[in-house]
Write a structure and sequence with these properties.
224 residues; mainly alpha; 9 helices; elongated
């Protein structure tokens, strides 16, 4: 008879950064899209000049966007740090296929998602394909943060702003930086949709509490 055991997989910093980043991305996407395309002002031109308070819609959007950006950056830095000090499921070394065994796992993982195998390789933490996607996601996070702070540095002075993004502008035109920042926004909108689909699919196949584990931190796993 198959014996199951409860495993504490996702530690609190992993779960906290996950949900903080998710909430921030919703706010950043909504406000960022408005900053690039102020649709309220274009659809309702009477907003300007009728009520003094309505003239500051863009100001409020920028304020909320910048505040969420700071929180998002802290959430990303927390997760990056925890990838070096957390448990074996949280470490960056678990995300990269640097051994023959992990490369073999990647092959069978791809076969599952290409509908060539009925079940994926059994893993407790991230599958190797999920790990690679996670690394790509965080690279996208870093590009978004750096380009965002680079754009903010245009109206700020000081050493801090040079370090967090201002150094980019002497090498790349502002419009190119803004375009990259905009494209990354769409990537960070599409990624969670694919992420949820794959998460639910894996949960149904493996039946080990994949989706609920990001709330509780625990998975029901085969005892080995």
């Amino acid at each position: 008879m198959l014996k199951l055991t409860d495993v504490y997989v996702w530690e609190l910093p992993v779960r906290l950064s996950h949900w903080v980043n998710a909430a921030c991305l919703i706010v950043l996407s909504f406000t960022g899209y408005y900053i690039g395309h102020p649709y309220i002002d274009s659809v309702h031109p009477l907003f300007y000049g009728t009520n003094p308070h309505n003239q500051f819609i863009m100001g409020w959007m920028r304020l909320v966007h910048f505040a969420a950006a700071y929180v998002f950056a802290m959430g990303v830095l927390l997760r990056i740090y925890w990838g070096f000090v957390g448990n074996r499921y949280a470490r960056w070394s678990a995300m990269i296929p640097y051994t023959r065994e992990r490369l073999t796992e990647l092959y069978y993982d791809l076969r599952f998602y290409l509908l060539l195998d009925p079940r994926p390789p059994y893993v407790v933490g991230h599958s190797i394909l999920a790990g690679i996607a996670y690394v790509v996601l965080f690279l996208g996070y870093l590009v978004s943060i750096l380009t965002g702070f680079a754009l903010m540095s245009q109206s700020h002075v000081g050493f801090f702003w040079k370090v967090v993004g201002g150094w980019i502008l002497p090498y790349f035109p502002v419009q190119e930086v803004r375009l990259v920042h905009h494209f990354i926004m769409w990537f960070l909108i599409v990624f969670p949709i694919v992420h949820m689909y794959i998460g639910w699919t894996t949960d149904l196949v493996e039946d080990n509490c994949v989706m609920s584990s990001i709330f509780s931190g625990h998975k029901t796993c085969r005892e080995e």
